[in-house]
């Protein structure tokens, strides 16, 4: 493959992968303005984020089988069309309930882009190149939380929150055109593959009953739901509780994202000396202890903006260690059905994250306590699940080092 072609494909696949994170993060600074225009409160606007997470949950389970049966491009086109139409619908909506529903289907459309991009890496590049390509895509995803809310803050303060969804609609159109004209066909559809519920459910059950999968997948899903709670609650905590404006909020969100992204890169270095099995309980110990400290401080009314930033930074750093290691350990036992395992892993993460985000979004108090409680509970429960369930893992089974 020519070098220019290689980087052009990376650019398209990276853009598809980043569509979801941009759609999540870019409108966060506009929560207050959206609430005012739709005659509701910020907590209700937070439910649009919860519905988005549940949409990704559904999309993870939907598009895996579709991509195998019909090839990569047709499901991608349909997903992007759904994304474009729902993004345009968000521009003109005047009702919070309609907005919540539109975000659900917008998430399903964006999920098509993400799942297709991941599948096409295996199709288009040699196996020896896959890890390198995935690393490049993850850099794009990692940059999204730093860029999107900052841009969203300036767009919201300058020309209004509707412009954010106009931008997302244009992004969807550009990605659809790029996929049609420049993304190569890469996979021969398996027309014999059944889309009946029975075989699909049996495939998921075969994965779910593996001790290493359910131990690390459930641990990771519970721990990682703290990130979804943080994303959902952060506009209210920073803009309502601490009274920062949209631009400052964007910069705060970007700065805290450095902790999550940076720790995931440090994790790669630590794996040269330690295994994922060794790193994971330490990271969960930090998450649970700092989460408990956060909850106690919030309940006592001892938090300031700076102490909240410091505690959240440490918590996000711990998640940067937890997520890659639980993902690697969850998928380690699988070869032939790695796609099913990956899909189920993503669905578990999104389902748990959606529930956590609903909890913090439904709270009407003007406080950081609901977020702090979720941070404390998720870390502690995840650590307990790990310590209890890992007893079921056969000692002779190789656990991998990611």
Describe the structure in your own words.
The longest helix is centred in the middle third of the chain and has 33 residues. It is built from 14 helices and no strands. Helices cover 81% and strands 0% of the residues. It has 402 residues and is mainly alpha-helical. The protein folds into two domains: 184 residues, Growth Hormone, Chain: A (Up-down Bundle), CATH 1.20.1250.20; 207 residues, Growth Hormone, Chain: A, CATH 1.20.1250.
Explain the layout of strands and helices.
Layout: H1 3-25, H2 31-37, H3 42-70, H4 73-92, H5 96-124, H6 127-159, H7 162-182, H8 197-208, H9 211-241, H10 246-270, H11 276-299, H12 305-331, H13 338-362, H14 369-389
Helix pairs in contact: 1-5, 1-6, 1-7, 2-3, 3-4, 3-5, 3-9, 3-13, 4-5, 4-7, 6-10, 9-12, 9-13, 9-14, 10-12, 11-12, 11-14
Average pLDDT rating: 85
Class based on secondary structure composition and strand pairing: mainly alpha
Low-confidence stretches: 398-402
**Main sheet properties:** none
CATH hierarchy, class of the largest domain: Mainly Alpha
Shape: globular
The radius of gyration computed from the alpha-carbon positions, rounded to a whole number of angstroms, is: 21 Å
- Tell me the domain tally: 2
CATH superfamily of the largest domain: MFS general substrate transporter like domains
Q: DSSP helix count?
A: 14
CATH architecture level-2 label of the largest domain:
Up-down Bundle
| Strand percentage | under 5%
> SSE order in H/E notation?
HHHHHHHHHHHHHH
The name CATH uses for the topology of the largest domain is: Growth Hormone, Chain: A
The overall strand count is: 0
**Helical amount among residues, as a percent range?**
over 70%
